[in-house]
Write a structure and sequence with these properties.
By secondary structure, this protein is of the alpha/beta class. The chain has helices at about 20-35, 40-50, and strands spanning about 55, 60, 65, 75, 80, 85-90, 95, 100, 105-110, 110, 120-125, 125-130, 135, 140, 145, 150, 155-160, 165-170, 175-180. The longest helix has 15 residues, at about 20-35.
């Protein structure tokens, strides 16, 4: 039976950016994002844009947020990103408008091929369409799309596509019920 040989692991073909760019972002991230100091969201969005992120208007970014590579990030209008969110975007992450990432949300775009003895890096883009809500401490795995207005409940793990207007819960997340949104005038 074959065994994993981590000494043979090689991800030289993965080049997410130049060394200087990554170092500058690392320190910017640590000073202004991965801190409990309440720097204004307008400053944080400007810094993300300066590093290549596409960020629309009205985005709220709370303290203690970690973004791996902003040049692989797109955020729509009026999104909320809560405390302790980790956007581990080794690949593209696209966040539609009016999306909520609650406290401790983890967006994970990278993993490893456990079937290969060299434990190769595997990447998968994440897409969160308009109106998606990812609950506190929930995880979205590589390659997952959360369709319009879907909900991933607290502590749940999305390993496959979430259907529109559906609430998911568990590990792995399963559809529990439909999401019905009522007008504020009701």
């Amino acid at each position: 039976m074959n065994k994993v040989k981590l000494h043979q692991y090689n991800n030289d073909n993965y080049k997410p950016g130049g060394t200087l760019k990554k170092m500058l972002w690392y320190f910017t991230n640590m000073l202004f994002f991965k801190t409990l100091l309440p720097f204004p969201s307008s400053m944080k969005t400007a810094l993300l844009r300066a590093f290549g992120a596409k960020v629309s208007q009205g985005v709220v970014i709370k303290p203690d947020v970690n973004v791996k590579y902003p040049w692989f990030l797109e955020i729509g209008e009026h999104c909320w990103i809560g405390e302790g969110v980790w956007i581990d975007n080794l690949a593209e992450v696209t966040i539609g408008s009016n999306v909520v990432l609650s406290q401790g949300t983890y967006l994970l775009t990278g993993s490893h091929d456990y079937k290969r003895e060299t434990f190769d890096l595997v990447l998968g883009e994440i897409v969160l369409e308009e109106g998606v809500w990812i609950g506190a401490k929930a995880t979205v795995c590589p390659g997952v799309t959360c369709r319009s207005h879907s909900v991933l409940a607290v502590g749940s793990v999305a390993t496959k596509e979430l259907e529109a207007y559906t609430i998911y819960q568990g590990n792995p997340a399963e559809a529990k019920r439909k999401r019905n949104i009522v007008s504020g005038d009701s």
